[in-house]
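Appendix B. One record, verbatim.
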Amino acid sequence: MVEVKIDDLVVRVYTFEGYVVVPIRLTEVYKSLKWKMQERYDGYHGMVRRLYNKNDVHCWEDFMKLKKSIEVEGFDNDFPVLVCKRNGVLEVVDGQHRCSILLFLGIETVECLEVKE
């Protein structure tokens, strides 16, 4: 495992035209948390369900439960953020919501496990 600055991580996010790779701070997940906008979060995941993954189960209530859990109990390093090196940068494969919460809480680094593509 390696400790990584969250601002150095990128994620793939869906758009109406496909996907783009962006830093965590530019994701709808992070922005919805920062601006306390459930509608933004629900709108993004609604689009994901309609266009890309009908089995997407993300919901605001669970996101808020995860946030509360991290606030109270801290980040659980037994479940590290999974990253993959693509185009010279570490891309989050699993953990975008957790990274967004950590950034929101002012935590700048996270334990990551690098996996093969």
